[in-house]
Write a structure and sequence with these properties.
With 545 residues, this protein is an alpha/beta fold. Among the domains are: 83 residues, Arginyl tRNA synthetase N-terminal domain (Gyrase A, domain 2), CATH 3.30.1360.70; 137 residues, Orthogonal Bundle (Isoleucyl-tRNA Synthetase, Domain 1), CATH 1.10.730; 65 residues, no CATH class. The strands form four sheets. The chain has a five-stranded parallel sheet, sandwiched between helices. A hairpin with a 3-residue loop joins strand 3 and strand 4. The model has no long low-confidence stretch (mean pLDDT 94).
């Protein structure tokens, strides 16, 4: 419907002003202001230097007449409000029946998008914060693909550098402890119980092999063994969470292919670097960063920043026009330097979108949960999944914008009640499946859906449901445009609320054939949209609960 309104306005614009402009069409919060409202007169007022009310009057006079339009009013200083006939919303049901699982799907855009998310260092298990980032990245990738983009999912593995060496040293020291040697375990080593478990596995498999080696050689080899082992666990946890990647991209591979070295050489040739205190610095302040950044340390080691520049250049070389990185909020200070580096290399920094995912505060019955005793310093994603399951975790992670802190109550997530947000939506789907089953048991004959007379659907609650269903394509488009998957979560909650109210106040079966059939097909349309929406969020759609 929104699309139809826009087409009417564009026709009126061509007739009246012969001008092409961008304008908004919104759903008013107050029903008295109609079904749709536009600010087009205000946008034109700036260009034409005329009062918006006068422009609105001219546009309304030039609007083509439509049988589905009840009236058009001008409100305030020049807002144009559109009121649709109740019967016009019946077309939405027909559209959903016709398109099925493709209802709301966007046209192919021929734009390659890479969504890089999670990308946790293989130095420890995934924690609950990584879980939220995984839910955001995976759902966003699903939505972008459904909206018509060519989407590629990638996990960047930081498998070189100081943190990997620290992991190797941590395992080495625990390994020596198991052999009875008294060692001092530094505070900057990894403290988690998983380090001891890896050391036990190494000892069981390799015996005293690493005790006889030079310490540096032992640390290097154990770093490789441990990071591989942890990465296997990460892949398993993500698979259990319903998250899969098209590519696991290794930083080591980037270095071995000399891509980091080539980027540094390029910066040297362009004069965008200088030496200070033995290190090589990039003049990132020239591109909006707060201070210059080191590319090569005084000891000759390249920085993570240098690797990240090479990695993002590699993304561009692979033909991705839009790059989306999903990071933890603790990386917020890293954004300006990466954008500065991309700008310096000739890439539009606006085509690099970085989503910062805020912290998750885990609670149980409203009270904060103590730190995990098994994992050492954090609550793992696996612990949460084992307790509440994939569906609850994914949905709750997406109930708020990723840049907002999130309270996650384990007790609520486990409840089979309407208090649980994912149960609330899934139960709407299950209720409709139950209606279908009852209809079949009663031998109810429903004509082919496209042949059903929908005119009995005229109650306010039915019209409200149809209005909500009509919004689904716009929700998909908006979630893809703003990179905000929580918009879909909120929408599904609102649609489910509308259906639950309808279900509790109106009978669907056991009525005259024409009313029964019309209400049945309305329920089918709601079910279709809920199923599509939950699939995009990576949440299952049970048929009974």
């Amino acid at each position: 419907m929104k699309k139809r309104i826009k087409e009417l306005i564009i026709l009126a614009l061509k007739k009246t002003f012969e001008i092409d402009i961008d304008f908004n069409i919104e759903i008013p919060r107050v029903a008295d202001y109609g079904d749709f409202a536009t600010n087009v007169a205000f946008v034109l007022a700036k260009a034409l230097k005329r009062p918006p009310y006068e422009i609105a009057k001219e546009l309304v006079l030039k609007l083509p007449s439509c049988e589905w339009l009840e009236k058009v009013e001008i409100a305030g200083a020049g807002f144009i409000n559109f009121f649709l006939k109740s019967s016009s919303w019946l077309e939405v049901i027909k559209e959903i029946i016709a398109f099925g699982e493709d209802y709301g799907k966007g046209e192919k855009k021929n734009i390659k998008v890479i969504v890089e998310f999670v990308s946790a260092n293989p130095t420890g298990p995934l924690h609950i914060g990584h879980g939220r980032g995984a839910a955001v990245g995976d759902s966003l990738a699903n939505i972008l693909k459904f909206a018509g983009y060519d989407v590629f999912r990638e996990y960047y593995i930081n498998d070189v550098g100081k943190q990997i060496q620290t992991l190797g040293r941590s395992v080495y020291l625990r390994y020596l402890e198991l052999l009875g040697k008294k060692v001092e375990f530094p505070s900057d080593c990894y403290q988690g119980g998983y380090v001891k478990e890896i050391a036990k596995e190494v000892l069981a498999k390799e015996g005293e092999k690493f005790k006889e080696m030079k310490e540096d050689d032992a640390v290097n080899e154990l770093a490789k063994i441990a990071s591989r082992k942890i990465l296997e666990g990460i892949k398993t946890d993500l698979a259990d969470f319903g998250v899969f990647f098209d590519c696991w991209f290794s930083e080591r591979g980037l270095i071995d292919a000399s891509e980091v070295k080539k980027v540094i050489e390029w910066f040297k040739k362009t004069g965008l670097v200088y030496e200070k205190d033995g290190a090589l610095w990039f003049v990132s302040t020239r591109y909006g960063d707060e201070k210059d950044r080191v590319l090569v340390r005084a000891n000759g080691d390249t920085t993570y920043f240098a690797s990240d520049l090479a990695y993002h250049k590699n993304k561009w070389k692979r033909g991705f026009k839009l790059m989306i990185d999903v990071w933890g909020a603790d990386h917020h200070g890293y954004v300006p330097r990466l954008k500065a580096g991309m700008h310096a290399m000739g890439y539009d920094p606006e085509n690099l979108k970085i989503l910062l995912v805020q912290l998750v505060h885990l609670k149980r019955g409203g009270k904060p949960v103590a730190m995990s005793t098994r994992a050492g310093e954090f609550i793992t994603l696996k612990e949460v999944l084992d307790e509440v399951g994939k569906d609850a975790a994914r949905f709750i992670f997406l109930t708020r914008s990723c840049d907002s802190h999130l309270d996650f109550d384990l007790e609520i997530a486990k409840q089979q009640t309407m208090e649980n947000p994912v149960f609330y939506v899934q139960y709407a789907h299950a209720r409709i499946c139950s209606i279908e089953k009852m209809a079949k048991q009663k031998g109810l004959e429903i004509p082919p859906l496209m042949e059903i007379d929908l005119t009995p659907l005229c109650a306010p609650e039915e019209v409200n449901l149809m209005k909500l269903l009509s919004q689904f394509p716009d929700i998909i488009e908006d979630a893809a445009r703003t990179l905000e998957p929580h918009r879909l979560t909120h929408y599904l909650t609102e649609l489910s609320a509308g259906f639950h109210y309808y279900y509790n106040h109106y009978r669907i079966l056991g009525l005259p054939q024409n009313i029964c059939a019309a209400r049945f097909v309305l329920a089918q349309a709601v079910k279709r949209v809920i199923k599509t929406g939950l699939n995009l969020l990576g949440v299952s759609t049970p048929e009974k609960m």
